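input
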Amino acid sequence: MKLLVLGGTGFVGRAVVQHALQQGDDVTVLNRGHRDTLAGVTARTGDRTAPGGLAALAGQDYDAVVDTWSAAPRAVRDAARALSGHAGHYTYISSRSVYSGDGPVTEDSAVVDADPDAGSTTYAADKRGGELATADFDGPVLLARAGLILGPHEDIGRLPWWLLRLARGGPTLAPGPADLPLQYIDARDLAAFCRHAATTGLTGPYNVVGPTGHTTMGELLTTANTIVGGHADLRWTDPAAILAAGIEPWNDLPIWVPPGHEYQFIHRADVGKAVAAGLTLRPVGDTIADTWAWLQDIGGTPPQRPDRPAVGITPEREAQVIRRS
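output
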């Protein structure tokens, strides 16, 4: 397949490129050229926020396009227009953040208001605006509404924070309940689904994330602790005690969202449509082990996206909560 990836050097885009190369695809990437491109890829330079930013794609045709954009929706609109008639399928990697409710969601659930011609506003509106902007593409479009994304090269820091914390060892705040079901997807499994969607012509929105309970908070932390050396003494703590201490779910303690919290929808999407369409998932242990191996390869300091806040609590705050529990 002749594939164009708009982006292609960050976390998810890199996974898409890597998977496509493994399948023998002819891969082209378009980005600003600030980061190294994987070997075997045709690199084209362009700034999608600037006039003429897509000029490097002129005269080229592709079997499929994967777009990872997460800022101003009008950049997606411009790409959709420019690639109309020049690509057979368009995948926009969106987010479950587009949903406006806080309960379990299906692809038919209500979404936030957004404008495809807008500049950047909020993450949810940007992603929904990007979805709407793909209407300017004259072929089949897949909206991959991803959930929590983990795996090697993660540049948000959620799983890397836990791995580095567990490796440090000692008494470790483990947010309960241990049987709390989690919902996530490995970036490589997301990439595989996107390629599968392009080759089979899938269209419309899909919640592309693993089923609720593919792993639990307990399995995640105990497996991770074993993989990084078994140095941590996991202190499982009731959610009420953690919240009473002012610890914020999701940001202060990455991945964790306690039962009843307003963010609990993060781990409660209906993914039956994607599973029926061919979504497959690797075991959580593989995601953890591969992420840990990558962290060691890069010296233990993961990259951090400049447009996202750092996650995790300080050792001092963690120790305070453990002492009070």
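quick obs: DSSP finds ten helices and 15 strands in the chain.
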